[in-house]
Design a protein that fits this description.
By secondary structure, the chain is an all-alpha fold. About 70% of the residues lie in helices and about 0% in strands. It is globular, with a radius of gyration of 20 Å. The relative contact order is 0.15. About 10% of the residues have low confidence.
């Protein structure tokens, strides 16, 4: 259920994600004035067109299925663990947990998922970067490459550890973002069910509900979850994307000798060059695409969960 929901959501949002990565990873001074300019240049580039916006989609399609299923699975496991270790919590299968517990469960699920997600996103970001743009005067090396060639190149040059480059950024984004994702959905769902006297402690998307929320409530709550997930921790995602794409075109022996940026060094450099605006570059288009995508994910998950109960 969660795999199908995640894959459909990724198909909807992927072109916007490509624009986001290109905006985040562009050199300084920026080569794109904004999302529309990035979209225009991507379409007009010799190797561009609409196909370029879906470049490398096989990796994130696989990753979306893993990410969404891992998030929902570990979210349910974390709730069960809290019920087992804290006897004062509601213990019934149909009982709903306090919002604070659900936020913590969301953070735990995000931290666990980040370990699976970083290698997939590293491959995705390298494939999404505009292949006609040189970095530091060096032509990029991933032109006409697919996911398997990128995987082989990363392993050859950096070993198995190379696939987890940017892990700290993914961990920060997924831990805080997943808490916001699940927490926003739970909170907004409660407000919509009882707009006058919301009882946050009685909500849970992972337990069986006697009367499911209407579809428009699920869509609205899911959209708010997507906005909260992407906006609050967007700077961590920006730094991660820059770290994962900074070596494009420099994976030769010359590139190997370069000093790699750490998460904090890369963030400090970006802040010095572009300030807060640089950390949130691409945030608008990301929030815009995440709202419908998350709405679809939660609606499909809730619908399929109710169908198979």
């Amino acid at each position: 259920m969660s795999k199908l929901a995640g894959s459909i959501g990724k198909l909807i949002e992927y072109p916007f994600d490509t624009i986001k990565v290109r905006l985040q990873s562009q050199p300084y001074p920026p080569i794109y004035s904004g999302p529309l300019d990035c979209f225009r240049q991507s379409l007009l580039a010799p190797e561009g067109g609409l196909q370029s916006l879906y470049r490398g989609i096989s990796a994130p399609l696989f990753g979306a299925a893993i990410e969404t299923s891992s998030l929902f699975f570990s979210y349910r496991i974390a709730q069960s663990a809290f019920q087992n270790f804290i006897p004062s919590l509601p213990q019934g299968k149909d009982d709903r947990l306090p919002l604070g517990v659900l936020l913590t469960c969301g953070a735990i699920s995000g931290a666990a998922t980040s370990l699976l997600l970083t290698p997939i996103e590293l491959v995705k970001c390298k494939l999404q970067y505009p292949i006609s743009t040189p970095i530091d005067g060096i032509s990029q090396t991933y032109k006409n490459h697919g996911p398997l060639k990128v995987i082989a190149s990363v392993f050859r040059d950096h070993g198995i550890r190379g696939f987890w480059r940017g892990q700290l950024g993914t961990l920060i984004r997924e831990t805080g973002g997943s808490a916001a994702w699940f927490g926003s959905y739970e909170g907004v769902s409660t407000i919509l069910r009882n707009p006058v006297f919301p009882q946050y402690e009685k909500t849970s998307i992972s337990t069986q509900k006697p009367s499911p929320s209407p579809i428009h409530h699920q869509l609205l709550a899911g959209a708010s979850a997507g906005v909260a997930y992407n906006f609050l921790f967007f700077p961590a995602d920006t730094i991660k994307s820059r770290m994962q794409t900074e070596e494009l075109g420099a994976l030769s022996s010359k590139g190997k000798n370069q000093v790699k940026s750490t998460f904090w060094r890369s963030g400090a450099e970006l802040w010095r060059q572009q300030g807060l605006r640089g950390l949130y570059r691409g945030c608008g288009i990301t929030v815009a695409r995440s709202a419908p995508s998350s709405a679809v994910i939660f609606a499909i998950y809730e619908g399929l969960s109710g169908w198979f109960r």
